[in-house]
Amino acid sequence: MRNNIVHSGAEELTYEIRGIVADAETLESYGVKIFWENIGDPVAKGEKIPAWIKEIVKNEVELDTSFGYCPTKGLLATREFLAGQRNQNGGAHITPDDILFFNGLGDAISKVYTNLNREARVIGPSPAYSTHSSAEAAHADSAHITYSLLPKHDWLPDLDELRNKVRYNPAISGILIINPDNPTGMVYPKHVLEEIVAIAKEHDLFIVSDEIYSNIAYEKEAMTPIAKVIDGVPAIAMRGISKEFPWPGARCGWIEVYNKDKDAVFAKYIKSIVDAKMLEVCSTTLPQAVIPKIMADPRYAEHLKEKSAQYNKRAELAHTILKNVRGIIAPKPAGAFYMSVVFEDGVLNERQTLAIANEQAKKFVKDKVSGFLPDKRFVYYLMASTGICVVPLSGFNSSLSGFRITLLESDEEKFTTIFKTVAEKIQEYLASA
After folding, report:
1. Which of 5, 146, 344, 416 is the most exposed place for a label (fewest CB within 10 A)?
2. At what angle do helices 130-140 and 105-114 cross, to 10 degrees?
């Protein structure tokens, strides 16, 4: 090319969750049956959409308006409904004007970081959800700044580390939380959120709270939306329908903006996000149109209750299987549908392997893992020997060695087999050298 046309932050854009798919498909072509435990898509894992939700969507499709543009911020009736729900729950008060729809939270995340001043940084949890960490790092053309989630303390955040990093890095302008957390399944206790808000208030920061899994917390009273404790601090909450309807293919998410009137700079920043969305005209209309009809339906609360109970049961089962495996730390998730497992320090090395019956798969992995980080090496041996595809924790901007596995398999017998196999293979791998 005449000029270098590559964005300076392009190398920060990584997504191990889907990056491993191409190699899994290669193994699949060799005859290895793959169990896709890497991607958080309930529909792909066989979750059935309730017939009454499908009926509401079908009825909306009959309306010609579902095929047209909507206002840039989203359908007014839907924003009025969501603002009303938020205000009924107490805490920060919002109006429909404080809600902005996107084509999924991936779109929202991109806009939130892209429209920041390049020198402004947002510190986030580690292990980090790749979409947030990559987008933030790419915007700044620098590695994502993180605070640690502690596996030996049920993945709760290291607040002392967060305070120190905020205090001594003046570029930090915002704090990210993901609640319930992806990839760990941790739910932030109310008192921890209050401490994070206090840190933001002391240092004049804003907060981004990704709450896409807010309705998939196993103990509902334990999930505190940031709006309940925000106490005048400017903030953005991210929500959507992809995980709870579930309808990931709708690409429909939104942000709720709190305390925009409290800070002129924050208000200008939010306007820049709205203006950026305006250049795209609007987000998808159909899924927005059905949100009030589905969420206001008396069956919706029971639907969410049943889903949380199912994931809680699987989390209990997975924890029971893995908790006594030597060499790992496997905290029980409290929300979302993921579990993160950490290898204890010093148990992994470059000599460890698993027996692989398929000769093509064996050669593929042996050639592939050269230079891999220790946890990614384990993940590839696990995948080639058993077909179980998980994601290394090193792919979540983490210095911890481990892996994330989903809790989405609905067949209890199959679910149990998968986790028992993982437990056995961890023991075999650690004992191999």
Report:
1. 5
2. 20
Secondary structure of the chain in HEC code, one letter for each residue = CCCCCCCCCHHHCCCHHHHCHHHHHHHHHCCCCCEECCCCCCCCCCCCCCHHHHHHHHHHHCCHHHHCCCCCCCCHHHHHHHHHHHHHCCCCCCCHHHEEEECCHHHHHHHHHHCCCCCCEEEEEECCCHHHHHHHHHHHCCCCCEEEEEHHHCCEECHHHHHHHHHHCCCEEEEEEECCCCCCCCCCCHHHHHHHHHHHHHCCCEEEEECCCCCCECCHHHCCCHHHCCCCCCEEEEEECCCCCCCHHHCCEEEEEECHHHCHHHHHHHHHHHHHHHCCCCCCHHHHHHHHHHHCCHHHHHHHHHHHHHHHHHHHHHHHHHCCCCCEECCCCCECCEEEEEECCCCCCCCCCCCCCCHHHHHHHHHHCCCCCHHHHHHHHHHHHHCEECEEHHHHCCCCCEEEEECCCCCHHHHHHHHHHHHHHHHHHHHCC
Task: Answer whether 0.90 is exceeded by the pTM.
Answer: yes
pLDDT in tens, 365-412: 999 888 889 999 999 999 999 999 999 999 888 999 999 999 999 999
CATH number of the CATH domain containing 262: 3.40.640.10
Q: What's the pLDDT tens digit per position in 276-317? A: 998 888 899 999 999 999 999 999 999 999 999 999 999 999
Domain of 291?
A: 63-295
Which residue, 295, 321, 347, sits at the end of a domain?
Answer: 295
Residue 335 DSSP one-character state: B
Q: Do both 170 and 67 map to the same domain?
A: yes
Q: Confirm whether 4 is domain-assigned.
A: no
Q: How does pLDDT run across 311-322, given as a tens digit for each residue?
A: 999 999 999 999
Asked if 223 and 263 sit in the same domain, the reply is yes
Opening angle at CA 20, ends 411 and 22, nearest 5: 100
Inform me whether the pLDDT recorded for 137 exceeds 80: yes
